[in-house]
Amino acid sequence: MKKSFFIVCLVILFSMTIFSAPKKVAYVINGSLGDQSFYDSGYEGIKKLEKDYDVETKLMECNFDPSLYYPNLMTAARWADVVFVISYGFEEELKSIAEMFPNKIFVNIDTVVEDDKKIISNVDFIEEEGSFMAGVVAGIVTTMTELPGINPEKLIGAVGGDDDIVIRSFVYGYDQGAKYVDPEIQVKTIYVGTWDDPVKGKQAALQLYSQGVDVIFQIASLTGAGVIQAAQEVGKYAIGVDSNQNSLAPGHVITSMLKEVGKSIEFVFKQIIDGTYKPGTLYKLGLKEEAVGLAIDEYTYQILPNETVEKILGIQKDVIEGKITVKEYRE
């Protein structure tokens, strides 16, 4: 009886993945820093880990070069105890390498990559909720014809870096938010096909503005910097993304839809440190978890009156409390 109990305990013990306190953390991204948005937000979280937990970190930028995806991720897996990765374009490579290093921690950010052995955990932002709020802002602003640059047409726009499931989720939420304000509002969208070309972003924005759009939600990383430049040049409005971009063109960026990549990294790492982390976990983070939301600051109040901002925040509160349901694109 005692022998059987001892064997059962051993089986349970060895079936568990036990992680020691990590000392090395890698951040592998398919793009590069300098976007003042998505990738930079994640890197802020990585640098915070250095400060708060005294860990060594390494940044691996792939610069959208597919030939770098596998070797950079392999280098990170060999070196680090924990690998945070933005794996757009190299999901299969991530699964393959994770299975080679089952005792390492792999956390994929912003998409869901499922491996058979449940090694990879995923942070899946409910971007529809944050984008719903961006749509609410755009919907309200496009009806405020007393503002400079606003025309009577109920037409708003979006510029996406690529036509993929994540960006479609943004647009889906954005459209819901605008139609919550006024069902007659229409959304025109251009998918540029690049994440690091502000010139193309500007061209797309100018095209939309010329068609009667007066507010554009940029969902295009560094490409979106061109959208903000265009808004400033023609006296129209933009909404930033991922990080607070309100200060990039004062008077023209109404707000930014925050996707707190850095905070999500901190959130997962805290679980790793306190021993509650489990491989293969799917973290779904939205407005309630403060993982997405709006950047409301002095630049917002330069454009919108107090009562309008209060109305926007009231709608956001209703979403958080479940009084307003935002549908997910993947449903």
UniProtKB/TrEMBL annotation:
Primary location group: membrane
Keywords from the UniProt entry: Cell membrane, Lipoprotein, Membrane, Signal
Domain of life: Bacteria
Entry keyword annotation includes NAD: no
Membrane topology: Lipid-anchor
SUPFAM superfamilies tied to this protein: Periplasmic binding protein-like I
Residues making up the signal peptide according to the UniProt record: 1-20
Tagged with keyword rRNA-binding: no
Protein name per the record: Basic membrane lipoprotein
Organism: Defluviitoga tunisiensis
